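step=encode ok
step=design start
structure_in=
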């Protein structure tokens, strides 16, 4: 009996994750838009405790500063050592969620020694992810 209940609960949990779409913001984005990190590359060694350059790539969409509402545009947010935030809320602004609301397409960051993840997430004029959300692959860098 308990095995059946555990299996049923597990199946319900899995189906909730598989069949539920990810909630996103209300600003439309092109379905073919792509955000990517142009540098550094996945697995690359970067200097620890020294600034290094990160540049952002974007295809089939434009960059506009925060507060500017223009079709098919947004601005970059760099996520450091964290997962994607909720897609239907404003992107947090803290040490793990860096905002580039002036329309920047690169930055200099400094990381302590160790393994770190970087990921880009596009936000609309109000820092909310688009629909569909536009985000890059999460890459790993090693700071030495």
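sequence_out=
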């Amino acid at each position: 009996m308990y095995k059946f209940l555990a299996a049923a609960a597990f199946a319900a949990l899995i189906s909730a994750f598989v069949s539920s779409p990810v909630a996103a913001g209300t600003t439309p984005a092109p379905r073919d838009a792509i955000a990517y990190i142009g540098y550094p590359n996945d697995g690359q060694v970067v200097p620890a405790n020294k600034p290094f350059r990160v540049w952002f790539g974007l295809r089939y969409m434009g960059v506009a500063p925060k507060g500017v509402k223009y079709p098919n545009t947004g601005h970059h947010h760099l996520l450091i050592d964290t997962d994607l935030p909720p897609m239907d809320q404003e992107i947090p602004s803290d040490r793990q969620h860096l905002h580039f609301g002036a329309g920047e397409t690169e930055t200099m960051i400094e990381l302590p020694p160790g393994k770190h993840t970087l990921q880009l997430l596009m936000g609309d004029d109000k820092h909310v992810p688009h629909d569909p959300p536009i985000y890059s692959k999460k890459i790993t860098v090693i700071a030495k």
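step=design ok
step=annotate ok -> The longest strand covers residues 114-123.
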